[in-house]
Each structure stands twice: as structure tokens, then as C-alpha cells.
């Protein structure tokens, strides 16, 4: 089990707006902000999560990496669809519309978008319809 994931972003304000909108259907919101004055890293970091626990972090103190991928597990296919719509409306780029991916397993229903830095973000439901 993962405790948290962190991604480097090139523009913290742009990425904040994207992730706040794209992850809202998943019940994930900004819970914590670490400013440059609070750390030695010199950058801003935002902790997103739910239930009082930030588990997804974005920060602007490092160079964004190629090939980065993050997948959020959700409880139903409608939430996958809502994530995809919200992410596109927030400026994300289509990287795979909602649908079954039977090459992973018969009930793998997912959608993929690229965030403003080209990071591949996925919402996936493993349950039957």
C-alpha cells in the first residue's frame, strides 16, 4: 500500500487549478500547503487527499519527469467518467477516454488524461458494472 505520491510540476498555480477540478469527483482536495519559507527546498508543495490525510503531493521545486503515471482507484464507473470530464474541463488532454481495458483484466474500466505537464493521470474502477 502506498502512503503518498509526489510529482514535480512546472507551474504550481496551473497544476493546483487542474488537480483541484480533476480530482474533485474523487473527493480529493487540497488539504495542506507548504510554502517556500517553511522548508529548505525553496518551492511550494500542495498535499491533496481526503479524510484529513494528504496522500498526493505536487510541488514546483524539481523538474517534472517524463513517463510519470499515477492511477486513482475509484468505486464505480460513473466516477471514472466524472473524473475524465472534470479533467478535460480543467485543461487536461485526452489520453484515453473512459472504457473497458480488457487487456488488463475483464472489469478494468479506466480513463486517462495528461495534466498540464504531460503527466499521465488515470482513474480506474476494478468492479463489474
UniProtKB/TrEMBL annotation:
Record Pfam families? Glyoxalase
Instruction: Please provide, alphabetically and separated by semicolons, the GO molecular function terms listed in this UniProt record.
Output: dioxygenase activity
What InterPro entries does the record point to? Glyas_Bleomycin-R_OHBP_Dase, Glyas_Fos-R_dOase_dom, VOC_core
Q: Where is the VOC domain?
A: 1-126
Oxidoreductase keyword on record: yes
Going by the UniProt record, its keywords in alphabetical order are: Dioxygenase, Oxidoreductase
In terms of PROSITE patterns, this protein maps to: VOC (PS51819)
Alphabetical list of PANTHER family matching this protein: GLYOXALASE FAMILY PROTEIN (AFU_ORTHOLOGUE AFUA_5G14830) (PTHR35006)
Annotated protein name in UniProt: Catechol 2,3-dioxygenase
Q: Which organism is it from?
A: Edaphosphingomonas laterariae
Q: What is the taxonomic lineage of the source species?
A: Bacteria, Pseudomonadati, Pseudomonadota, Alphaproteobacteria, Sphingomonadales
Amino acid at each position: 500500500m502506498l502512503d503518498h505520491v509526489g510529482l514535480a510540476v512546472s507551474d504550481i498555480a496551473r497544476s493546483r487549478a487542474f488537480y483541484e477540478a480533476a480530482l474533485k469527483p474523487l473527493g480529493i482536495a487540497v488539504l495542506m500547503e507548504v510554502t517556500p519559507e517553511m522548508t529548505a527546498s525553496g518551492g511550494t508543495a500542495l498535499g491533496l487527499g481526503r479524510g484529513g490525510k494528504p496522500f498526493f503531493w505536487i510541488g514546483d521545486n524539481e523538474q517534472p519527469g517524463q513517463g510519470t503515471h499515477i492511477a486513482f482507484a475509484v468505486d464505480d464507473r460513473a466516477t471514472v467518467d466524472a473524473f475524465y470530464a472534470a479533467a478535460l474541463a480543467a485543461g487536461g488532454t485526452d489520453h484515453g477516454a473512459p472504457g473497458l481495458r480488457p487487456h488488463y483484466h475483464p472489469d478494468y474500466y479506466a480513463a486517462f488524461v495528461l495534466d498540464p505537464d504531460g503527466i499521465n493521470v488515470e482513474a480506474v474502477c476494478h468492479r463489474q458494472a
